[in-house]
Specification:
Helix content is about 25%, strand content about 45%. By secondary structure, the protein is α+β, with helices and mostly antiparallel strands.
Amino acid sequence: MSHYQLRRTFNATPEQVFRFFVEPEPFSQWFVVPGFRTESVQMDARPGRSVQAIMVADDNNTELPFTVQYGDVEPPHRVVLRPGDDEEVTITLSPTPDGTELTYDYTGPAAGPADQSAVDTMLDQIARHL
């Protein structure tokens, strides 16, 4: 198992940032990778429940269905996501004088520099859509 942590400060309240992890439309805006868009998001943001969605390729509309399980959900300060059986992401949102600090804490096999860069790009989308 590997681990990494990313931090980001957003000019928004914890409640505004929290929406990106528990509401379909905001989730689809940040949970994307280059060359894809996220569609058909259905979610039940309670512990033990899940997000089900489809990533669709921009160039040929290939569909990649995916599911992310919820662990702990403590509005508006903490969400635990389990994208795979051996992966866990803890999102912590803390108020700061400048807005909200997000801590993205990952444990699992996908912890290399390219993986971290992909998550950084995804977090950029939160700032873009706030």
